[in-house]
């Protein structure tokens, strides 16, 4: 029974309902206007800019050039035809690859670790409140601060990570984690997994706590092995919560900017889609070209969300059960 | 005999795992604190335990010209953003949670979609708007642009909170002839305080931590927010990164957040998971 039905009874009549609907409109109007101004309009302007040759110096001096920021052919005087535009730009595809790699690996690890932590927190033990408080700390620390803290810990000469790993004989020489091409992505992943696992753990925990306890009771009495209980009972029951958590995290990971920008500046091994489009837009004064790249990023995210919701039949509104 | 032994083993393994989780979670912050209290050559020796309390890094940061200013900027920007978002969100979420109208589901999905927007996608249009309004390099540039992620989030969470409030009080108010505005301000607002605190706190943390817009919309050092100030703290040359002051500044901006989060722990967890697991 959803709540507003109560007012659709005969006694109240339609006038009250109409009055409420009119009030609802005026209550929504300021919020909708604000969202239009800060979301819809800038987004449309970004789309527009991506089809011009605007530069940061003269925002209104651009000409409309259709899709030439995305793809165009250039014929040289010698008759040689070359392709230009972000769709044939290796730097862009490198960024796409980095972003996808980062997102898949980080979300996979965060989900597995988050689930493990959530299972621990779902058990009854002494000091549970303390542990839950402790895992909230990485989440509360600003991303920039996390990046700096880890940059210090990962420092090649004075970093504690190298020291710990040397002592454990995991590595035999000090590694310049953030500046070496091979390890830069690992460094970014380490920080992101550390920072975001708590969020996943809390979402998983909320899902776990909705599983009725008597199901476990019944399984225990029937002597079902705990591993089997997890895969046959727990996992299917928390799947909806898990699907939603994964999509939130995935969207967050695909647009990552701040961590990469601060931890591994100018490293082509970690440069993500957000980083490269801001770089073009602001630092290289290729405003329109950067806009084209951010438009592409938006498109990729939109397709991903649509596919995920469609394939996974995820109910994001939370109104399904109501 | 055998079962108790294996029980003991598992309980030890369990607690070992718990300890690993806790150490993993808090070690980096602990180490930042340890580093922030060491200076000179002590900074470049690895100490796992605090060696003393040397406040010189804190002195350097807090008496510096720009860092206190950026803390003030951040406080002003984050609080104004939160007040603005909550004000717009309370009325909107009343309409979304209590009034049935056509297109409500679509509207909720749109709001959720906006909250998941990649910020870079609105950056170009936002730069144009901020420059057009003449707000570039002022706090208002951040206050306006942060609305793109605080507002949808607050609307979403407050709507889920309000849906769970008992219907009877509202019915009673309607029978007494209360208008929707009276219902919101006199009936719902007092009940919503806990939700408002939670949502406001989460939005505050989001605004306090934001980096992309703050980096793009500020030029001069005195307009920077704390994340930008920390990211830009640099020494005389590239080789001389001032790790001590950076860690001190990091601890200064993080301690208030950690304290707030620990105090409002349960409420924050409820707020974070509000939209997420209701399916």
| DSSP summary: helix tally of chain B | 12
Treating each run of at least 4 consecutive H or I residues as one helix, how many helices of chain A? Answer: 11
Greatest chain-chain interface? A-B, 112 and 102 residues
CATH superfamily of the largest domain in chain A: MetI-like
For this structure, the CATH topology of the largest domain in chain A is MetI-like fold
How many structural units, i.e. domains of chain B?
Answer: 2
- CATH class of the largest domain in chain B reads Mainly Alpha
Q: Could you tell me the mean pLDDT of chain A? A: 87
Question: What does the model show?
Answer:
The complex is a heterodimer of chains A (322) and B (279). Chain A is mainly α. Chain A folds into two domains: 3-41, no CATH class; 90-312, MetI-like (MetI-like fold, Orthogonal Bundle). Chain A is 66% helix and 2% strand. Chain A has helices at residues 13-49, 90-122, 128-140, 143-153, 160-167, 181-209, 213-221, 226-254, 258-263, 273-283, 287-312; strands spanning 72-75, 81-84. In chain A, strands 1-2 form a two-stranded antiparallel ribbon. In chain A, helix 10 packs antiparallel against helix 11. Chain A is globular and about 80 Å long. The model of chain A is unreliable at 1-12 (pLDDT under 50). Chain B has 279 residues and is mostly helical. Helices cover 74% and strands 0% of the residues of chain B. Chain B has helices spanning 2-36, 56-62, 67-98, 104-115, 119-132, 139-163, 167-175, 180-209, 212-217, 226-232, 243-263, 265-273. In chain B, helix 4 (104-115) crosses helix 6, helix 6 crosses helix 8 and helix 7 crosses helix 8.
